[in-house]
Design a protein that fits this description.
Blueprint (H helix, E strand, L loop, with lengths): L1 H17 L5 E4 L1 H6 L2 H36 L7 H54 L4 E4 L12 E3 L1 H8 L3
Parallel strand pairs: 1-2, 1-3
Helix pairs in contact: 3-4, 4-5
Length: 168
């Protein structure tokens, strides 16, 4: 019985001696991204694309507005077939405009994902590098607006990741 107790105490002590304390880091990815020149370039490209789409969209919208006004100003003595054709053309163009709007949203989301993917990967690689070099058990992303409290065993590694990314 005494041997079992001594054996159990030896196991418990060896586990306690080998247990590591957790080293936790926090990183503000919003601060990282907002200070990266690559993000500014990506935003500029997105803005240029959006501007091109807006030009085309505004042109289609102006054409639709013209058709609408033409329909509203149509005199009553216009034959029904002409009125029907113009109404159908207006409805068709309205649907095309809505489809174009949906396509714009999808294309902008796709382009944003394509432009930001390598940037996110670069940030992820830098965070992993800092984690390995600093022997962190965990590095958690933070949103400063949602973080209410953290204390001593947690370290803000944002400056280390900025250095790794070459950001001042």
């Amino acid at each position: 019985m005494l041997k079992k107790i001594l054996l159990m105490l030896a196991v418990v002590f060896s586990m306690a001696a080998s247990a590591q304390t957790l080293k936790v880091g926090l990183v503000d990815t919003n601060a990282l991204l907002s200070s990266m020149p690559e993000v500014t370039e990506a935003q500029k490209k997105l803005q240029e694309t959006q501007s091109k789409y807006e030009t085309q969209y505004n042109s289609l919208q102006a054409e639709l507005q013209k058709q609408y006004e033409e329909l509203n100003n149509m005199k009553e003595d216009v034959p029904e077939l002409i009125r029907k054709n113009k109404t159908q053309a207006f409805v068709d163009n309205q649907q095309k405009l809505q489809q174009f709007e949906q396509q714009i949203v999808q294309e902008m989301q796709k382009q944003q994902a394509e432009l930001m993917a390598p940037i996110y990967q670069k940030v992820q690689d830098a965070i992993q590098s800092v984690g390995k070099e600093g022997n962190f058990s965990l590095i958690q992303g933070i949103d400063p607006q949602l973080t209410f409290y953290y204390s001593a065993p947690v370290e803000d590694v944002t400056p280390l990741v900025k250095t790794k990314l070459g950001i001042k």
